[in-house]
């Protein structure tokens, strides 16, 4: 799933490529992708893109006061081209969920929203205000917003009995962090993914705050200037524990372990994060604290 750094890199790329381009055609190809009916998506045609902005993991294209907003979910991605075709796509066929065509200063441009797999979660909204999108309206603070300091994080943690892994992934609590970067952040902070948020002392809160900014900050730098076709590989190449079950921890050399759930999994280092304890799989046992 694309998270804050990849979505930020994608947003910057699209802003650079599409600002000033005019929407010439929109094809909604997936039955389920469009979540709004008013205003109709056809009203975007003929409007110029005046900017592209990120809200958490949402991308918002401003088309002269009307907004095309999308969330890529777990298996969605973007395909951008400066050599688009004018083929009319068939509804419900293939991996393309939506296709946008633009007329740019240097020629035609094309943007496809794609989604792999059978579970369809990619979402598109056409709205008059980005905050009309329920997921955007419900977002918590962005980790890089001015008000998100260590005291703000301490207040968030201190008021929650949730496990810290789940809390970091909750978009209504902190915007933009998903499964992969929460693993990376907790590893850097030397914190168990199953520690209760309000149980963290001041030193642990400081480590977590620093890890959020160091992990996401480094990933943002790596994503900057990359085209969409390179962003996924850039992310994978810099992960130290996520999706690396069975490999050696790059910090201590211990074996990276995994806890699996019904539709996802997390990875962690026992030595770095849980004082050597192996966390039990929730499907068969209670969590070890």
Describe this structure in words.
There is one protein chain. With 289 residues, this protein is an alpha+beta fold. The chain is 28% helix and 21% strand. The protein has helices at residues 4-18, 134-137, 150-158, 164-169, 179-188, 202-223, 228-237, 270-273; strands at residues 22-28, 51-55, 58-63, 66-71, 76-81, 96-104, 107-115, 123-127, 257-260, 265-268. Strands 1-6-7-5 form a four-stranded antiparallel sheet, covered by helices on one side. The protein has a four-stranded antiparallel sheet with strand order 2-3-4-8, with helices on one face. A hairpin with a 2-residue loop joins strand 2 (51-55) and strand 3 (58-63). The relative contact order is 0.14.
Shape descriptor reads elongated
Radius of gyration: 20 Å
Within the largest sheet, what's the order of strands? 1-6-7-5
- Please tally the helical runs, counting DSSP H or I stretches of 4 or more residues: 8
Instruction: List segments where confidence is low: pLDDT < 50 over at least 5 consecutive residues.
Output: 285-289
Strand content: 15-25%
Question: Based on DSSP secondary structure assignment, what is the total number of beta strands?
Answer: 10
> Helicity level, as a percent range?
25-40%
Based on secondary structure, the structural category is alpha+beta
List SSEs in N-to-C order.
Answer: HEEEEEEEEHHHHHHEEH
Taking the alpha carbons of the first and last residues, their distance comes to: 27 Å
Biggest sheet features: 4 strands, antiparallel
Average residue-wise pLDDT: 94
């Amino acid at each position: 799933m694309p998270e804050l750094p990849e979505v930020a890199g994608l947003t910057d790329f699209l802003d650079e490529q599409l600002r000033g381009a005019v929407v010439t055609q929109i094809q909604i190809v997936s039955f389920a992708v469009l979540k709004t009916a008013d205003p109709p998506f056809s009203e975007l045609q003929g409007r110029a893109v005046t900017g592209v902005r990120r809200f958490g993991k949402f991308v918002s294209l401003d088309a002269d006061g009307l907004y095309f907003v999308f969330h890529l979910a777990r298996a969605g991605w973007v395909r951008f081209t400066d050599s688009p075709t004018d083929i009319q796509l068939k509804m419900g066929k293939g991996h393309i969920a939506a296709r946008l065509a633009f007329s740019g200063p240097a020629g035609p441009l094309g943007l496809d929203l794609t989604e792999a797999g059978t579970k369809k979660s990619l979402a598109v909204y056409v709205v008059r205000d980005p905050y009309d999108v329920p997921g955007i309206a419900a977002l918590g603070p962005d980790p890089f917003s001015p008000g998100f300091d260590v005291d703000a994080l301490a207040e968030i943690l201190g008021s929650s009995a949730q496990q810290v892994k789940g809390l970091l992934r909750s978009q209504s609590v902190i915007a933009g962090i998903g499964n992969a970067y929460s693993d990376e952040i907790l590893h850097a902070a030397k914190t168990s993914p199953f520690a209760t948020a309000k149980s963290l002392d001041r030193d642990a809160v400081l480590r977590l705050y620093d890890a959020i900014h160091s992990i996401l900050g480094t990933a943002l730098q790596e994503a900057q200037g990359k085209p969409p076709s390179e962003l996924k590989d850039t992310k994978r190449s810099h992960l130290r524990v996520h999706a690396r079950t069975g490999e050696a921890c790059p910090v201590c050399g211990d074996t990276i372990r995994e806890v699996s759930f019904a539709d996802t999994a997390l990875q962690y280092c026992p030595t770095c994060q849980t004082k050597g304890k192996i966390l039990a799989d929730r499907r068969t046992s209670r969590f070890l604290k």
